[in-house]
Structure formats: structure tokens, C-alpha cells
Amino acid sequence: MKKINNKKILIIAGTHGNEKIGIELIKKLKLKKLGGDFDYLIANPVALREEKEFIDVNLNRVYPGNENSLLYEERLAYKNLKVARKYRYIIDIHEASKGKDDFIIIPKKKVSKLFPVRLIDLKKIILWPDPKGPISEVLENAIELEFGMKGRDRVEVIDKAFKIIENFIEKVSGNNLEEQNKKQEVYYVYGKLMEENFSGDINDLVDFEKTLNGKEEFYPLLTKQYMKYDIVCYKMIKKN
Q1: Residue 184 resides in a domain
Q2: pLDDT in tens, 61-73
Q3: Are residue 195 and residue 151 in the same domain, yes or no?
């Protein structure tokens, strides 16, 4: 039986070195003297120091990793996973520079029963089984939280993230795991819209607002976030 840490919660920050929200959040939690209730892991310290998304390969695509790999992030993923397996609940914090929404990402086809997702005070849940490789795809008791930064006050977003995590920590620490009475919307990512296949005006696309491309109807996600890869947006259907 795997040993579970006395601190049940692990917060992961800096999976991508150009996303600092997790670092800022951890500092705020520690200032509020909540550090005794959770541990944290700086997932990619070298990329964070160099303010790069990654050094060799995307850390969020290579779990469970390989301790003998020549690639820095693959070795790192192996070490990070060994740490994360000691905890009951793992939350990986991310930010999207082109996004305006905040949501939960579960890199699976369905919501796991091993994480009390209804204790996370966010309305939108994204089921995103592909591509493979996030730590929360490997671990059933892990999720990602994504916070959009476009056109928003960064301090206000950090404050919102803090309240969400503070509430979760208090519920878990008090063993109050009953589901909150609220409705969460569940979306499923089934593909991506490539620039060459897009027939409209990208400025008309709004995340989570139903749209048409030709005869295909879908909900956009992370519009313009990955244009360097010619991805206009990801495509979702709504599950409920």
C-alpha cells in the first residue's frame, strides 16, 4: 500500500516555466499561514528560471517520464510523479495568456471518483483525454486548474485562485468532503480546428460560445492560444 502524506494536498506550480500563477498562489497561501495544510512542488524549476515554456520537451506531455532519458523534462516527470504519488489530492495550476475563462481540466474520458471535483468552486469542467502525458492523466486523484489572463487584472485572478484553493484546503482538512450544491458544466474536447480548415473570422470565435465552421457545430476552447502551431482553437461538445 502506498504511503499517503500527512498533508493530503499537493499543489503543483511551474509545469510550464512561462506560467507563474502557481508560484504567486503558493506565496499567498503561505502568507495566510495555510502552508501547514498542503505541500507544493515546483514542477520545472529550470524552465521557470529561464522563463521558458520548457527546456527540451513539454513537461505536460511526457508523464510518467523516464529516469534514464536524455531529455530533461522526461527525467523530471519521473521524479515529479514519485513525489505526487504520496498525496491524496493533486492540483496542477496553469494559466492561459489568451484565455478569459477559468476551468477544471481532467485529462480523461470521465470524471474520476478519486478527486472531489465538486469542492472546486469553478463552474466549467473540461474532459480532455488527448493528447496524453499530463500528470493528471496518469494519476486518477489529480486535476488541472486553468486560469485565463487575457484582459483581466492579474491580482484579481490570483485572489480568485486563492479563494478556490483555500476553500478546498479547508474542506479537505476538516474532512468535509460532501459535494457542494451547485451545477457544474461538463465539456468534452474531441479535436482541434487547424487554420487551414477554418473558413471564418477568428475574431468571431469566443470560448464556450457555440459556433459553426462549415456544417460542424462545436464550442471553442483556448482560441488563439496555440496559433504558433496553426491551431485556431480546440473543439468541444457539451455533456450536460
Answers
A1: no
A2: 999 999 999 999 9
A3: no
Q: Distance between CA atoms of 34 and 37, rounded to whole angstroms?
A: 6
pLDDT at site 3? 46
Find how far residue 180's CA is from the centre of its chain.
Answer: 21
pLDDT in tens, 43-61: 999 999 999 999 999 999 9
Same domain, 203 and 102: no
Q: pLDDT confidence of 174, banded at 50, 70, 90?
A: confident
Residues 218 and 117 in one domain: no
Q: Give DSSP secondary structure letters for 49-96.
A: HHT-S-SSS-GGGSTT--TT-SSHHHHHHHHHHHHHTT-SEEEEEEEE
pTM above 0.90, yes or no: yes
Q: Which domain holds residue 28?
A: 9-173
**b/e map of 37-75 (b: 16 or more CB within 10 Å)?**
bbbbbbbbebbbeeeeebebebbbebbebeeebebbbbb
* Residues 197 and 233 sit within 8 Å (Cβ to Cβ): no
- Using alpha carbons, select from 201, 24, 205, 12 the residue that is nearest to residue 98: 205
Segment 84-98 shows an average pLDDT of 96
